[in-house]
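User: quick one, fold this
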Amino acid sequence: MMKAQPLSQWLSEDNGPQRLVSWGNRGNHPISLNKLRQDVTVLYLRLKNLHITEPKRAASRWALCFEDSYDFCVALLATLHAGKIPVIPGHCREAQLQEQQSLFDAVLTDLPLSLSCPCWQITSSNPEIDTTEKTSPNITLPAISPDATLVMFTSGSTGIPQAVIKPIAVMDLESQWLASLWGDKLQSCIVRASVSHQHLYGLTFRIWLPMSLGLTFDRKIVEFPEQLTNSPRCALISSPAFLQRLDDKLPGPDCTFVVSAGGLLHFTDAEKAMQWFNTPPNEIYGCTETGIMAWRSRKTDNAVWTTFKEVSFQEDEEKNVRVYSPLLPEPFGLILDDQFAFDSQGNFALLGRRDRLVKIEEKRISLSEIERRLCDISGIADAAVLPINRGKRNSIGAVVVLDHETGKRYQQQGIHELSQDWRHQLKPWLESVALPRYWRVVEAIPLNAQSKRSWPALQELFNETH
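Assistant:
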């Protein structure tokens, strides 16, 4: 059984300086542990020197906004070794980062972002530090504090991002569980991913797990199945949306392990994945707040979820389920957003969600946030949004109430031009899958007898065929 190494030991001299840690840049040139250690030291020195050169601007909370996973890993380690707090907003959208600036003091990024706080563009080819410092043999990185944390975000029921503080020790423990479960299957694999490291699932599986197991990870995201066909032996960190797009006309890749998370994997897509990869896909159940809770190998349609032995669930009379786990800082547990059907062994099937957060293509979308953003648009007096299913595809439908002037434009022009403008205005704030695809204009949002929004009546507005 492979043993997971804690983050504090990732750069240890004992790990072998020429061990490959990352792969997949221009020409697929691999990166050694020695290069990683060097790049981390370079950035650490710049963070440390900030206290000397700009003492009034010494930032403690650094937002990490990277598309490249290797550069993200460098920034993560450098900030922790420098005693800083990594803040992972979950996106790289400039407009939303500007709005969220109270959540961090400065930004590290590989993108040309322009914000009103310090914003350092850092890449492994341009670390912005003197070369003589880079090669100094006398620099020793300080130990990472045992109490070190990072900050991630998840949408609350209001749609406003909610901070989730993740202790580094908890992230290390999570990797230990996964190493015990699947470490042997991951041996000799390059870890490749179709999901972002900016969310907990991608961070855990795409960065933390391979680094803790001494494996090589791909620094670039896998966007299309054809990118896997000529890949070296790999493990794929994926999602239902990606597995649904597999093309069985392509030759199957040398992929010995597949895991999916973030949404419902339909069994027809699991079967297709099993045939193409020649191995059954595995699934992980968890969320940002709780970390991993359960897993299953999707060999059959009705496969139940197996709870990690350290995790337990408790259901109350109203069918609310509370989870208890060493990965949770709260000893009193956390009430979950999902509905469950438990068997006598404590394993379970999932019955859907019970709140206004929905999953669309593995993105956790807050319907409340979309409504809030719509109501900020000039001309929209009120809005209600809901998920709309067309075949296998889920999208967002928006019901809007217009003010007098915009209502006249709607009568003259129709919905197409207006909706395109609304989507354009929403784009800086929302994931692309959260942009409404279907639109209805009404004089007032329908209410039920309790003067609350009538969701059945809203759903009926979209039932006709278009």
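User: anything notable?
Assistant: The domain at 365-460 is CATH 3.30.300.30 (GMP Synthetase; Chain A, domain 3).
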